[in-house]
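Hello forum,

I keep getting stuck at the same step: I have a sequence, I want structure tokens, and every attempt I make locally crashes halfway through. Rather than fight my setup again tonight, could one of you with a working pipeline run this one for me? It's a single chain of 309 residues.
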Amino acid sequence: MSDVNRPAIDAASWFLSTARERIAGLLEAGSFTEFLPPTERVRSPHLVLFDLPAAFDDGIIIGRGRLGGEDVFIAAQEGQFMGGTFAEVSGAKLVGLLRAARDNEKLPRTILLLLDSGGVRLQEANAGELAVGETMRAIVEARAAGVRVIALVGGRAGCFGGAGLTAATCSAIAISGQGRIGVTGPEVIETNKGVEEFDSQNKALVWSVTGGRARRLIGGADAYADDSIISFRAAALMLMREPPAFDLATLQAEHARLAGRAEKLGACSTATDMWTALGIPDPQNITDMDDDAFRAVAAGVQGIDHDAR
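Reply #2:
Ran it on my machine without issues. Output:
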């Protein structure tokens, strides 16, 4: 990537970009070194059993680069390969990166996780579930060792299932309006509970429940980005400067914050009900306002910050 191309890359859509394009745009030009690149041909041994094509990076890119003059580790899920799902090889790559930072203070003390995943790869269900559990444990251990782990969410696959749980263990989360976070995806809810419970084709409903604006307003994300790569870079730099503590007091404060959120919003049946309970003027307009206006609204909501996490 050359400096000549930088303005176009900065303005590129995070949602529409590939994992590699996001890394190239996020980091300083020429600074990225990939670990286990496609030339190493480390791919899933299981997909051939289902007559499915494999990828030589198994849907996740890991490596090292610079952001804001600081060395960072980075891992980016490719949501366009099998939904960015957690599996044996992709999980091992991510866990290995987290453990390396945990075990060696001379390595980067910031890890950026570009999450774009529907959860566990069904064809590798047991291995995928294990990968999620190991990833969450590795994040907690890395944070305990002083490593900042920052999640960036804004891709096509969203951040569901194991990815949603993984995001919740991170030091901080930046999300765009196009981003979505949840434990159970809309299609899964509809399949198991029926369209009357949750219509996955109702995009306004989906984004009002799981979307970036909803998550930011109720404290499920720490920073809001617009869809451009440059906006995600600015959000990442801000969160890198403000890492929360990670100790018993942090845990107790987070439990208290979540209990307060449940008490205040637990009886709400719609997103608009929640915006009203939060004291937001003209709550019906949240989804229609531009990004700058939304940031101003979010900044004025009391009790959404994640300093406790």
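The two ends are 35 Å apart (CA to CA). If your local run keeps crashing, start a new thread with the error log.
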